[in-house]
């Protein structure tokens, strides 16, 4: 088989496997269909959407290596927050933290802020905890844990991908304005959520 | 890319997306392909995400490390799977602790995400332990009794899946593909962490 044929076959195989629903063969597995519920969960929350897109935008704006470090590390850091949420570890101001992430990340994109990589990673990681916590705390009963978790991690990453895709326009002069405008819009939306959270 | 090749890619992509977009309920414990227990076992594995995901993670890890690691893994895992499965059949139905389920995802997913330079003996041991544990769990926790032929069929599916994914990882020469594989590793590690929280909840 040629390399292209192998890649095509493997892509088809991966998609077929990804289409499987819950298997009831095993006693330790409970629940109903979880993958698409989990996948849609971050997408249904506008506060999550704007922050995740902002992460992708900022990563693309910062360039290498941020553009690939963030998609690799963010899911794991977010899962730490999810773990805390599942364990019902008290974390005050979750909604404020989520809203603030939209504001600050949007502003960072708007103002083309370029901190050192470590500082950017810490900031993004800090907010990832809050987002993950909210997802974990909201995990509905009866959902298949594996599929739901996989779905929402992938859904979150897809939002990053959207942000990165938009952010790649940054290389052109008109693209810079577009990306910064997107950052501004995200900041405004975040501010709206922050207002609601504080009110 | 020549137009006919592009067309072939497009047709293949549309077919794959169509199949992926029309999933049906998988009642694995009722699987009866009508083709015999060998094929029932093969399909049983394919519709068991808790069995598939760790295998995907190990295949990615082995592929990222190179062809020698990949060859080791794709041969050793199915063999260990059968051995573990036989032990599971002998032991009878057992409920596997949720935390044990999380460990392969956490460890393997984390290694893939970090693109950790696992030595050959590390790949060997990971393949052995995963094959034994996953095969045992597959056989022991199934609601329906698992026969030896089911096990062999499922081991064949394990081999095919590992071979395809590891080969894809080995031949991938573009940096962004390697980054994509590490992203998949981070997804798996994140899922393992969430599963750990779920099991402790």
Estimate the global geometry of chain B from the Cα principal axes. globular
- Based on secondary structure, the structural category of chain A is mainly alpha
Distance linking N and C termini of chain B: 52 Å
Largest interface (CB within 8 Å) is between: A-B, 53 and 66 residues
Number of helices of chain B: 8
Largest sheet of chain A: none
Largest beta-sheet details of chain B: none
Strand content of chain B: under 5%
Strand content of chain A: under 5%
For the secondary structure, the number of strands of chain B is 0
Q: Quaternary status of these chains?
A: heterodimer
- The unreliable regions of chain A are 21-32
Name its key features.
heterodimer, A: 199 residues, mainly alpha, 76% helix, B: 201 residues, 8 helices
Model description:
The complex is a heterodimer of chains A (199) and B (201). Chain A is built from eight helices and no strands. Chain A has 199 residues and is mainly α. In chain A, 50% of the residues are buried. Mean pLDDT of chain A is 83; it is low at 21-32. Chain B is mostly helical. Chain B is built from eight helices and no strands. Chain B has helices at residues 3-21, 37-46, 49-65, 67-91, 98-114, 120-140, 148-171, 175-200.
SSE diagram, text form:
The complex is a heterodimer of chains A (199) and B (201).
Chain A: H1 3-18, H2 35-44, H3 46-62, H4 66-86, H5 94-110, H6 117-137, H7 145-167, H8 173-198
Helix pairs in contact in A: 2-7, 3-4, 3-5, 3-7, 3-8, 4-6, 4-7, 5-6, 5-8
Chain B: H1 3-21, H2 37-46, H3 49-65, H4 67-91, H5 98-114, H6 120-140, H7 148-171, H8 175-200
Short description:
The complex is a heterodimer of chains A (199) and B (201). Chain A has 199 residues and is mainly alpha-helical.
């Amino acid at each position: 088989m040629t390399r292209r044929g192998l890649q095509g076959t493997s892509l088809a195989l991966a998609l077929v496997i990804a289409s499987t629903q819950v298997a009831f063969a095993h006693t330790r597995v409970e629940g109903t269909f979880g993958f698409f519920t989990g996948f849609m969960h971050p997408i249904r929350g506008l506060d999550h959407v704007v922050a995740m897109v902002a992460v992708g935008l900022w990563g693309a704006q910062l360039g290498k290596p941020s553009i690939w470090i963030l998609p690799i590390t963010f899911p794991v850091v977010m899962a730490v927050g999810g773990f805390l949420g599942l364990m019902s570890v008290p974390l005050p101001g979750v909604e404020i933290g989520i809203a603030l992430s939209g504001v600050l990340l949007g502003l960072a994109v708007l103002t083309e802020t370029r901190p050192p990589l470590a500082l950017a990673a810490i900031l993004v990681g800090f907010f990832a905890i809050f987002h993950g916590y909210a997802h974990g705390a909201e995990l509905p009963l009866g959902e298949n844990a594996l599929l739901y978790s996989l779905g929402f991690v992938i859904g979150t990453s897809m939002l990053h991908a959207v942000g990165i895709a938009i952010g790649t326009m940054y290389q052109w002069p008109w693209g810079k304005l577009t990306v910064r405008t997107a950052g501004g819009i995200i900041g405004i939306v975040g501010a709206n959520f922050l207002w609601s959270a504080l009110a | 890319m020549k137009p006919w090749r592009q067309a072939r890619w497009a047709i293949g992509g549309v077919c794959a997306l169509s199949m992926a977009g029309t999933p049906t309920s998988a009642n694995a414990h009722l699987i009866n392909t009508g083709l015999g227990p060998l094929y029932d076992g093969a399909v049983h594995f394919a519709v068991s995400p808790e069995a598939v995901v760790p295998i995907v993670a190990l295949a990615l890890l082995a592929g990222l490390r190179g062809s020698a690691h990949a060859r080791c893994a794709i041969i050793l895992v199915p063999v260990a799977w059968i051995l573990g499965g036989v032990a599971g059949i002998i032991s009878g139905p057992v409920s596997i602790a949720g935390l044990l389920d999380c460990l392969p995802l956490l460890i393997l997913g984390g290694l893939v995400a970090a693109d950790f330079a696992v030595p050959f003996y590390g790949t060997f041991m990971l393949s052995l332990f995963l094959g034994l544990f996953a095969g045992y769990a597959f056989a022991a926790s199934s609601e329906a009794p698992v026969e030896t032929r089911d096990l062999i069929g499922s081991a064949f599916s394990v081999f095919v899946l590992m071979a395809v994914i590891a080969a894809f990882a080995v031949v991938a020469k573009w940096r962004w593909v390697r980054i994509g594989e590490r992203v998949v590793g981070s997804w798996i590690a994140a899922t393992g962490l969430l599963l750990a929280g779920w099991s402790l909840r």
